[in-house]
Specification:
Shape: globular
CATH architecture: Alpha-Beta Barrel
Number of domains: 1
Largest sheet: 9 strands, mixed
Strand order of the largest sheet: 3-1-2-4-5-6-7-8-9
Order of helices and strands: EEEHEHEEEHEHEH
Number of strands: 9
CATH class: Alpha Beta
């Protein structure tokens, strides 16, 4: 199998439960909810994505086989195998490409495996941390995990229904667009009404890291 990777980089996780942790990010190319082209964004199943996941032209991007991808991830991470390391697979939609073979081999190198997914695809075995970020227009099949992170506001959102799902942590994250200040106020107001939910900020954007 060849993995199509947009970029691989070392940073600080800025969102959700693991916010503040050192992490290696591997962003796979492609998504099943949007093709990544601005011309089709308004009519896509996810019309507020702010991520470039098209192609393989990012930092450390490319077409990788299993061994070359593992070697690149280790090189970017810059740590030996004795240290527990966090790798976050994201996209696009990482579950279009992430498989058990890659997971098992990275675990042998002492990596903790995390994903950020839209929840529309069942995951392979062996993932240590599952973060689902659902889009209201789409039915999720991955209704369990470690954290549910909802971008807010979204039209037609029903938080009561989401609370029935099997997650340890529930986060609301203000939609980061030209109305961010307004979205943040709405998010805070909603959290005061729904105490099960916690605030997630995209910390990396405030501290100026990728």
């Amino acid at each position: 199998m060849k993995y199509s990777v947009k970029e691989i980089f070392l940073t600080i996780q800025g969102e959700g439960y693991n916010s503040g942790r050192k992490a290696t990010f591997c962003r796979f190319s492609g998504c099943n909810l949007w093709n990544g082209l601005e011309s089709s964004k308004k009519t896509s199943k996810c019309n507020f994505c702010d991520t470039d996941f098209v192609g393989v032209d990012g930092v450390n991007g490319g077409k990788y086989n299993l061994s070359s991808l593992i070697n690149k991830i280790q090189k970017v991470t810059k740590e030996n195998t004795k240290t527990k390391k966090l790798i976050v697979f994201t996209g696009g939609e990482p579950l279009l490409q992430l498989n058990e073979q890659l997971i098992k081999n990275l675990k042998k190198k002492n990596f903790e495996i995390a994903i950020e997914t839209n929840g529309t695809i069942k995951p392979p075995e062996g993932i240590d941390w599952i973060c689902v970020s659902p889009k209201v227009k789409n039915k999720i099949v991955l209704n369990y995990g470690n954290e549910l992170k909802v971008v807010y506001p979204q039209k037609g959102l029903n938080l009561n229904e989401f609370e029935k799902l099997d997650f340890e942590h529930f986060y609301l994250q203000p939609l980061h667009n030209e109305k961010y200040d307004q979205n943040l106020k709405k998010t805070l107001k909603t959290i005061m009404k729904y105490p099960k939910w916690k605030l997630s900020l995209q910390t990396h954007k405030f501290i100026g890291v990728k």
